[in-house]
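Hey,
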Amino acid sequence: MKVLLIEDDERLCEALEEDFTDRYYTVDLAYDGQQGLSLASTYAYDLIVLDIMLPEVDGITVCQSLRSQRNMTPILMLTARDTTTDTVIGLDAGADEYVVKPFELQALAARMRALLRRGSAGQAPVLEWEGIQLDPSSCDVRYGDTPLSLTPKEYNLLELLLRNGRRVLSRSQILDRLWTVDGPPEEGTVKAHIKGLRRKLKAAGVPSDPIETVYGLGYRLKTIERST
């Protein structure tokens, strides 16, 4: 899952980025409203965490601008304002959730998961392919009864593949979803992570490679071949 965090408090931003990354989210950062609006209008995100009091363009205006563009990415607003009027203004601007500072990181994470579940309505809560299971709510991955210990990038790559099944994902699509704008990887990085994921799936007992390389196009999942 890819999150855009728009927050001008650098200390809070660093703490949230660390916490989000620990929860296997890919995080892009913006320190003012104009930069945040530009990123949100250019790239696809699963969730936007948006402060209200921002330099350049305030969070309410950012939210209204995105909704006017028919950008329906879930938006969770952060604010020090805790009156009912402020809450109503934020929600009327198009925000989906409203969290008042200060807050506990676990409580914020729970609100984020709820919004992501809402945005994925109709999708299975546990992603599954040929016995490979990934639970986004607990970040638990297993093949049958065997748990898999994945790096954050391997986890996000597997989640992306599971959510798309037989749909081919190009290298550029994978980069857009799993890497930050400020941290583009070196050539061959996607291939290296695919290789690492394949190795761990094999070690967990998956009888054949479930990731198909569609040459010249990208990657997708395929049926696992089982010996008879």
